[in-house]
Amino acid sequence: MDSLDQSLISELRHNARASLSDLAITLGVTRTTVRQRIERLQQRGDIVGFTVVLKEAQRDPVRALMMIGIEGRGIDRIVRQLGGIPAVRNIHTTNGRWDLIVELGTDTLEELDRILIHIRRFEGVATSETNLLLNTRKQT
């Protein structure tokens, strides 16, 4: 991936609906070049799709990060269980004190509480800590 590909991806992250013409003008290349680059990035699997990004507060009025410590070797099973919970937005493995960091989004604090209790009951979850997200200052 060269600097033009990286610039193209940056522009698409900012506005995935930008026209080929607008992208070409911004990047200083032809429409054909932009189209070919996007097609190549898709074929190689660098771009796997385009999506709509919603303002988090509209999508999830209550957002939290749950850090999870796992005992034993049950991380794969726990990740699968977490993946089945609709309120789980992202699951991250990490180093340090916690084994997983889970991003959660719900409509109410009561719903979040039910989900936290449910997750804490997973076999192999030894400890957890949850922080509510109050405001997002920068989003990519």
TrEMBL record:
Any GO BP annotation: response to amino acid
Magnesium in keyword set: no
Protein name (record): Lrp/AsnC family transcriptional regulator
Occurrences of domain HTH asnC-type (ranges): 1-71
Top-rank lineage group of the source organism: Bacteria
Record bears the keyword DNA-binding: yes
GO terms assigned for molecular function: sequence-specific DNA binding
This protein's UniProt keywords: DNA-binding, Transcription, Transcription regulation
GO cellular component: cytosol
